[in-house]
Description:
- The structure holds 2 protein chains of 2 kinds.
- Chain A is mainly alpha-helical.
- Chain A contains 13 helices and 2 strands; from the N terminus they run αββαααααααααααα.
- Chain A has helices at 5-33, 50-55, 58-91, 94-109, 112-123, 128-136, 149-173, 177-185, 190-201, 203-219, 222-227, 235-246, 249-276, and strands spanning 38-39, 42-43.
- Chain A has a two-stranded antiparallel sheet.
- Chain A is globular.
- The model of chain B is unreliable at 1-20 and 114-133 (pLDDT under 50).
- Chains A and B meet through helix 1, helix 3, helix 4, helix 5 and helix 7 of A and helix 1, helix 2, helix 4, helix 5 and helix 6 of B.
Amino acid sequence: MRLHPVARIALGLPALAALAVLFVAPMVNILLQSLHVNTIAGTSSAWTVHNYSEGISGFYRSSMLRSIWISLVVTLIAILIGFPFAHTYAKAKGPGRFVLTLILFLPLLTTSIVTSYGWLIVLGRSGMVNTALQHIGIISKPINFLYSPLGDIIALEEWILPFAILPITGSLAGISPDIYKAAHSLGSGSIRTFLSMTVPLSRAGIIGGAVAAYALSMSSYTTPRLVSGGAVQVLPIAIYNQFVNVLNLPLGSALSILLLVVVLVPVALLGRRSMLAGRA
Amino acid sequence: MSALTTLADRMQPRRRTAKQPALLPLPRTIAKIAYMTLISAFLLAPIVVVLAASLTERAYLTFPPHGVSLKWYRDAFAQQDFVDSLKFSVWTAAVVATLAALIAYLLALALGSTSILGHRRALTRLVTWLRVGTLSARTIRLTAIMPMMLPVIVLAVALLQFFARIGIVSSPLSIIFGQLVMCLPFAVLMAEIGLGHVDPSTCLAAESLGASKLRVLRTIVVPASSSGLAVAWAFSFVVAFGDSTVALLLQGPGQITAPIDIFNVLYFNPFAPTVAAMAGLLAVITFACLTVGIAVLERGGRRA
Lengths: 280, 304
């Protein structure tokens, strides 16, 4: 059955209207706002890229670089520890699969305020990890997980990991088992099969997972805010402060656009095919 | 011939090494189970800790908890601010989920109708126009899924600015609209999975037997894809319910969601067991919605 074109348009219209008003218009709005500067009399009407030159220098550049390295570390760890998990998850069946799906989706969808709060309890100076390590005698003084990038990385990892595992699982599940049989019958050992077959064939999932992990850790606000209490100035915290505390809206808009560019360029270059390629 | 024998000779030891792991399935399985348990423990750690800590009998957080009691949950429900925020969260998330699921389902139907519902025999006048239509379908889909990749903080500040400009910033509508954009990508993906369960040949058969398009939609497409619609609703609800960034920036008097209420309380008194009980309650609600959603999704997938 082919729907009448008018019917197709009518079906798509609510979504298009919602996206135009609630997504495109606000984004254009902050793009325009970022091209003005704040003066004592209010926002000037002259066009300028001043906010962008401020946004890529000094304090904001270091926030940006800190966001990038934290996100890259989170992404790398997510791929490395996520791959073996995805490998087993892709083959799981029945109740085992159901339980693993639940375990993957629960941290992904539970509000980051609850999970960050959990990490505060686990990683605090007198939290579980420090108490346990001191008890065993591995450390004499508690480790400062919180208010440091280390805590951010651990807490982000827990939330991000499922986003890396799911695309990898998707591409691993798509590999025909015959390929492994063929490799085995031709005498290829399991390590060699893994490196020369499994990894290249699941490349799309690995790239998709990495892109999602990077994009989400770059843009996370509440997790770093709660876990490092603002002591680790990442770009989303700088943006929030411009809009809520400093009220330099044009600069905040410029920083938002910069974050958008730094997130979306790798997404566009690497992830478009693997993440957004649809079935429709 | 000699080449073949050397090849066979060379294959011999290799084949043995390749077979060897089959003799040791047990250590491998144990290592696999241990690894999966370790990662699962890491993924669940903060949620389990919050739940466990909220059950303590003491007036401060302890882990492992001392005794088991639900008194901090009773205390959480005695906090009027929290109860109000929870009610606000539930009704706004339900509205968001309903809007997102419907809009996304209709969009998925529009985008997928050619591929799901098969062949095209367009009027010649409309052919060129239709081709433009199919080309832009990909763009439309990309735009609908874009907000998922977009930094949420950027979306939130952009919405804050925009809603302030059009004057709805101090209304629940701002949070509903904001979370709607966040949920749409998930809803579209889930609706597409649901529509993937529709069998095109059944539609074709019905049509060739003279069923009208509306009837095909009503009796075949919608029933076969209804699990996708339900899952789109459940996921949108959970995403909206769990959102913290949009709700944080668009909060206002009388429009504070439960996560933001916890966020605000955390600021002053992070280690009160009542806070753990509030957080634990949110985790339980998320868990319940998720279990139902995944069960429906798996069952829908099996039936198809």
